[in-house]
Design goal:
This protein has 116 residues and is an all-beta fold. It has strands at 4-9, 17-23, 26-33, 36-41, 55-57, 60-62, 69-71, 88-89, 91-94, 101-105. The strands form 3 sheets. Strands 2-3-4-8 form a 4-stranded antiparallel sheet, with no helix packed on it. It is globular, with a radius of gyration of 13 Å.
Length: 116
Amino acid sequence: MSGYRPVCALADVPGGSAHRVFVDGVPVAVVNTDEGVFAIEDRCSHADVALSEGDVDGCTIECWLHGSAFDLRTGAPLSLPASAPVAVYPARIVGDGTDAVVEIDLTHTNEPAAAG
């Protein structure tokens, strides 16, 4: 059985941006990039602030508070001060055009081991 659930319209997440959604009380940043749509825990592991308010550059998102960057594919921190990863979730686009919807699956998370 699929755990995918619709979370927002694709139109809510313009290319190169992030959009915050809550799924069962869990904050998730839905991020639209040239490489596809990603879903990542919307909480910086360093300062506990919303990553969805940060800058998107390719397949990375940078925390607006202290500049920690995270890989959208793996959740791994790419720069200090963050040293712990954040969860990532499978995401997909269903439909096309103005009817396209982003779905994510919170039942399958990829939490990589912290670098060390």
